[in-house]
Amino acid sequence: YRQFREILxxxxxxxxxxxxxxxxxxxDVVKGDGFKNLAKTLLGVGRGSNTxxxxxxxxxxxxxxxxxxSRNFTRLYEQYKIELIDICEQLTxxxxxxxxxxxxxxxxxxxxxxxxxxxxxxxxxxFLIGCFPYNAASHSAQHLREFVNxxxxxxxxxLDSTKFVVTDNERKMLPAFRKQCSRVGCxxxxxxxQLQHVFQSDQIH
Length: 205
What we know:
By secondary structure, the protein is an alpha/beta fold. It is built from 7 helices and 5 strands, in the order H-H-H-H-E-E-E-H-E-H-E-H. The protein has a 5-stranded mixed β-sheet with strand order 3-2-1-4-5. It is extended.
């Protein structure tokens, strides 16, 4: 039995590595409850089957079928949203990441807001608050800040001088988060500018 467990562990480890590598997924995905439930169910199906070889594609749902069953996704979304709001209400410090983009074909603008905080045991947590259709009156710094504040209110979050916001260096971002928070420039954007200068500029400093 011990030898069987060791072989099974080795096989599952290789499968998990392939699952993450081929799908470009984070290794932490195997720690999630959803992945554990899926693995447990599949092992149970295999153990209870009298067939020596199972065609897994015959058992797995088609992507279109998963999308059709949207009521379950809505229920899960509402459940996890309530849990996230409970977490947000207890936060005394946090960092937001705010960015904007416009979809080229539709012209619809979006505002993405992500939340990061470190809990008492120094573990870093990241949550995507949402990627919201931007419906403010304009793209000015004032309206952008008002839009972000409105989205945060739903999650019981409020910016002040002890909270941090990471943004790019776009002109409206600088004044939008100049007050009642500490704005931090995005390191990726700074690095991108440096690399752009290295490979495209003829000047050497």
